[in-house]
Amino acid sequence: MARLDWDETSYSVSNQKLDTQHQEFIRLYNNLHETLMTGTPEEASEEKATTLKRLINYANQHFAAEEVFMKDVKFPELKKHIQLHQEFITKINGLQHDLTEGAIVLNTSLIKYLRNWIIYHIATEDKKYAQYVEKNP
Ligand SMILES: [Fe+2]
Ligand SMILES: [Fe+2]
């Protein structure tokens, strides 16, 4: 499982602010990935807790900005998109809850989930509003 690198073609939604926020998600993922691969088990569990906390805060902030943007441009799939955001928040909240309850959150499954989510959500779902804006300027 490798780190992620931002690339304009795959990830850009043609909006500076939202692109910068997506880059921050990738940065959070890469930090987590690096610590889980190279850190001690103690560092790894600390990093998991910190990253999940940051992710929840950051995702809430980003999703709010993105939803305002989609509303402004009258993106027709807004409702479905909001639901996808809520699913992510629910999943991350659940993982954080598991961690604080002492349940095992596997490094590999966390990394895999985040990686797949970032790639799929930004490159496929977020791209849809960018394509909509492009077609309906
Ligand atoms: Fe989104
Ligand atoms: Fe997004």
How would you summarize this macromolecular structure in one to three sentences?
With 137 residues, this protein is an all-alpha fold. It has helices spanning 8-11, 16-38, 41-72, 78-100, 107-135. The mean pLDDT is 92.
Which helices and strands occur, and which strands form pairs?
Elements: H1 8-11, H2 16-38, H3 41-72, H4 78-100, H5 107-135
Helix pairs in contact: 2-3, 2-5, 3-4
Bound molecules: fe (ii) ion (FE2) (2 copies).
Question: What do these coordinates show?
Answer:
By secondary structure, this protein is mainly alpha-helical. It has a single domain (16-135), classed as Four Helix Bundle (Hemerythrin (Met), subunit A), CATH 1.20.120. Helices cover 81% and strands 0% of the residues. The chain has 5 helices and no strands. It has helices at 8-11, 16-38, 41-72, 78-100, 107-135. Helix 3 (41-72) runs antiparallel to helix 4. The protein is elongated, with a radius of gyration of 16 Å. The termini are far apart. It binds fe (ii) ion (2 copies).
Query: What is the assigned CATH homologous superfamily?
Result: Hemerythrin-like
CA(first)-CA(last) distance: 39 Å
Quantity of strands, as a count: 0
Number of helices: 5
- Name the overall outline: elongated
CATH arch. level architecture = Up-down Bundle
Largest sheet: none
Q: Ligands bound here?
A: fe (ii) ion
List low-pLDDT spans. Answer: none
Kindly provide the radius of gyration, computed on alpha-carbon positions and rounded to a whole number of angstroms. 16 Å
| Oligomer classification | single chain
The succession of helices and strands, N to C, reads HHHHH
CATH class: Mainly Alpha
Strand content: under 5%
Instruction: Give the % helix.
Output: over 70%
On the 0 to 100 scale, the average pLDDT is 92
Structural class by secondary-structure content: mainly alpha
